[in-house]
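Help wanted!
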Amino acid sequence: MNANIRRVGLLMIVLMLILAAQLTYLQVLDAGRLANDPRNSRTFLRDFTGPRGAIIDAAGKVLAHTVPSDDEYGRQRKYPLGDLFSQTVGYQSIVVGSVGIEKEYNDVLSGHDLKSVKIDNLGELLLDKEHTANVILSMRADAQQLAKDTLRGQKGSVVVLEPATGAIVAMYSTPSFDPQPLAAHNPREVQVYFDLLNADPSNPALPRAYRERYPPGSTFKIVTTAAALDTGIATPETDFPSVKSFTPPQAGRPIENFGGRSCGGDLESVFVQSCNSAFALLGVQLGELFPPQMRGFGIFEAPSIDLNPGAVVSLGPPEGSFSTNKPSFALAGIGQGEVATTPLQMALVASGVANGGLIMTPHVAAEVRDGDGRILRTIKPKPWKQAMPVATAMTIRDYMVQVVARGTGTAARISGVAVAGKTGTAQSCETCDPHAWFVAFAPAEAPRYAIAVLVENGGSSGDEATGGRVAAPIAAKMLRFLLGL
Amino acid sequence: MSVNRSALGQRRRGHELKLGALALVIVAAGHVLLALSESPAFPRDLWAFLGAILALFVIAHLAVRRLAPRADPTLLPLAALLLGIGYITISRLDVAAGAADRVGPTQALWAAVGVVAFVTTLVLLPTVRALARYRYSFLMLGVIALLLPLVPGLGREINGALLWVRIGPLTVQPGEAAKVLLVVFFAAYLVDKRELLSAGSRRIGRVYLPDPKHLGPLLLPWAASILIMVQQKDLGSSLLFFVAFLAMLYIATGRYGYVVIGTGLFATAAIVAYKTFGHVQSRIDIWINPWQDLQDTGYQLTQSLFAFGSGGFAGTGLGLGRPDVIPVATTDFIFAAIGEELGLLGTIAVLIGFMLLVGSAFRISLQAQRPFLKLFGAGLATILGMQTFVIIGGVTRVIPLTGVTLPFVSYGGSSLVSNFVILALLLRISDESATEAEDDAATEEARRAIESAHA
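Answered by r_m:
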């Protein structure tokens, strides 16, 4: 009998070894996949019941933090500034998920990213210390507040960034919303609020500044000018005939100048007057050379930004379409037709001119710090696009200074500081009022801030609106405040 | 009593005490770690806890010292270790549970009842041999225990299986008792019919088949397994019974023919059950693809797999994971909770604990001289081994998931008490065999002494 008993015993051992093999598979080979599976509720529970770092603005103001609660989760996320940062900081919601900084920097906020949150000694394990990190933004709550105040409830966006680093200082759009109800723990209430937000025809949940595209109108003439100079299609001396309109090939309808006036002259002159006929002509002359030049500014490619979801891509007439669609290239020359850009993208265009042609990668976070204030990670400036040579940038800067000094953008003048800017008044459809745009940077000789302002459909000015009248004053207020004047 | 002071007995009890102390140190360390995960202070009840586990172990140890002094020294410490790891895991799950759902204190109470059952078994059963005499009574008791949950008004269905019987404030699982009762019967029956079942075969091809008239004893356990599977929806116990019986039949006869036929019978029944019964089918489907209906039918198994994966190699550490999201974590899925917080290191350690426990049980069976003791010991060892395999295999997706407890580790009174009785029976077999061997050796020595004196 003993031989038989040994065989049965051996069978039992073999069965146990099979279990050991499967355990090794589950806990080592397949462990990463199982642990990070989005359906594994541990990820979710860690994020909602565990400690979580704060999100803080450049001046130390708390934008999001976690406080104790007496419900099953034990903690509640708070957004003390309400609608000022809902489009960038975002929210952390059990019901509808997380967005913005809350999502993008979740690993450091929750302390899950152990590479960035160091445990210095064993003693810390025994203290009641929370190993999470705070995210410090380059954004400023006071600038956000001013953007909100100057927009005065008109639908629109304000984006301010530092040309040299790509650090975003302000990025706000109207309408916005209070993120606090989305962070509530009652699934029903959250869902009702979320559905209401999405049903609102003004679409407050949409971060227009980086997730909506608009025709940029004449602000896009910066790109057209740079393209024309860089490809040799035009020089500063090129003389444009004084005409009332330009009719592109393949199209019956002429592209008219603003107010039906005649304009022309050298490149600076047509730029400062924002002369449509000249730039429509350049668009056609550029032809197939135009899209690659746009690509140099980041059109056709969503700028990488540390937000989740990120920025949407800006568009222009596709490469290879010139021969069949010449009018679209004429319209592209004046920022109409197939050209559609985000306010963020236009701020980046301005920052490219300000920064000698180099567009830096935009970012909203500046640093990650631990609870004791030690820096764990610095978000370093990173070049994104070399949009144009330095010489071209200098030329366009001078043109933009003239726009504010004596052209369409005089409303953006700041005493004592040279402001470089470009207005835009963009048709969005046949019957609606035009979008008012203004992009600028200041001080022109040593730029600290680049800005894009968009007021949708003219805002309260309606069909009277132009970029110069509606958007330029907002940009001036922002710049004056930020420059401390 | 000179018998109690045998050198073998002294040595074995000494080992048992040392191994037991090691097990207690590990369990106490777990208790401290768990408390530290909650607050940076040593647990206030540390001395009470130490006192309690020490008292339980010492009582069991003294009982063995007195009542089965020559018994195997590894079983009791291994059981103490597994029970302790189980208790730590259960009290860890209690931390996250609401006050009404805490089961740790109940489990501690059941551990004490288990030790009482352990001692009582040793006291009431001076020799295991005696059991063979009452084989048919055990058969009857076993069958009644199996059928009890089917009695209307008495049975209670929990988690989809009809295994429980309500007696006053307690719900007990008579199937746990049936396990032991039926193994006693099988062992005694097979020892009787061994010769008969081994001989008189007909040959088909290369396989020797037993005479058809001897297939009768195969059919009874087969029918019992089917009954459990169909009526009580308990696939795990069904598999357990059948494999244990088949293993004993093979050990008794050494004939693969029985194994082949038995496996065939069981497979046929399983296939018919799969085609006929929804619950069997759904278990198999979940096993094949637990991910397709993750929120509903596949929920339990996928949560278990997530727990193992989240634990990884070293585990999250006691009190630092989220084993509370695993369904029925204190009973069926306790191994997943261990896997999450103690990692592969912990699960393999527990698995080795079971290998040693089951291995020791087989060694006891090997060292026994009497066929009944051999078969009985091997049957108990198989039950322990198979139960471990069925539940760990179930929660790790090696085999379809069926709810049985992990011996000594899972929460549950019936299971704990019956496992302590199994433990006592194994120790009794071990002691009985060692005593007989010692007596034989003494007799032999005396004979030689006399012979040499004569020479």
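OP: Thanks! One thing I noticed: The longest strand of chain A covers residues 435-442.
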